[in-house]
């Protein structure tokens, strides 16, 4: 899949089939995330792959989007390691690039994924559920699975509405 095609056709997928996602597919998604740019190449991202049904259900109970996490065969909790950060803004921007790479990789593999941010209200509970140190800050949980339905079309604002000026 060409890069621009992937960018323009990727959509958030919230409903999945029961078909499993292979370990190799998940590792490819995580690998793509790890190749995002980061300031000083500090690579602050850390990942927890959650397949265990009990852990997935418990994590799902920490968000109003429990049906998404509960229906996904695998979730990837994405954390920022505060011990390697050097600038909050730059490191958090890097985390966004990491998450976007992961979503594009899932799409390129024919999988569906969605970046869940609402769960951040329960960040401490997620970290505790996964038995992780306080130095790890939850950035998002990515639900991954095989899409249960075809990809939707999308739309975006016209560039004329978004570009403030050209100087």
Explain what this protein looks like in three dimensions.
This protein has helices at 3-9, 23-34, 53-60, 66-71, 88-108, 123-129, 159-162; strands at residues 45-50, 74-81, 112-116, 136-145. It is an alpha+beta fold and 167 residues long. The chain has a single domain, classed as NADH Oxidase (3-Layer(aba) Sandwich), CATH 3.40.109.10. A 4-stranded antiparallel β-sheet has the order 1-2-4-3, with helices on both faces. Helix 2 (23-34) runs antiparallel to helix 5 (88-108). The longest helix is centred in the middle third of the chain and has 21 residues, at 88-108. The N and C termini lie far apart (35 Å).
Strand content: 15-25%
The helix tally amounts to 7
The CATH superfamily label reads: NADH Oxidase
Query: What name does the CATH topology carry?
Result: NADH Oxidase
Largest sheet: 4 strands, antiparallel
CATH architecture group name: 3-Layer(aba) Sandwich
Structural class: alpha+beta
Identify the CATH class. Alpha Beta
Query: Ends: how far apart?
Result: 35 Å
Enumerate the strands of the largest sheet in spatial order, edge to edge or round the barrel. 1-2-4-3
Helix content: 25-40%
- What's the structural domain tally? 1
Instruction: Give the overall silhouette.
Output: globular
Average pLDDT, all residues:
95
Total strand segments: 4
- Given as residue ranges, the uncertain stretches (5+ residues, pLDDT < 50) are none
């Amino acid at each position: 899949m060409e890069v621009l095609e992937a960018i323009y056709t990727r959509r958030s997928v919230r409903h999945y089939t029961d078909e499993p996602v292979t370990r190799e597919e998940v590792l490819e998604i995580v690998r793509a995330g790890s190749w995002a740019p980061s300031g000083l190449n500090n690579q602050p991202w850390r990942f927890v792959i959650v397949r265990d049904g009990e852990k997935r259900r418990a994590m799902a109970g920490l968000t109003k989007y429990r049906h998404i996490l509960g229906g996904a065969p695998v979730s990837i909790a994405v954390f920022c390691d505060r011990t390697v950060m050097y600038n909050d803004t730059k490191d958090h921007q890097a985390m966004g690039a990491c998450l976007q790479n992961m979503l594009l990789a899932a799409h390129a593999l024919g999988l569906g994924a969605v970046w869940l941010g609402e769960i951040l209200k329960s960040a401490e509970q997620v970290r505790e559920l996964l038995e992780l140190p306080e130095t790890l800050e939850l950035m998002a949980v990515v639900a991954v699975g095989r899409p249960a339905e075809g990809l939707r079309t999308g739309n975006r604002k016209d560039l004329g509405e978004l570009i403030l000026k050209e100087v």
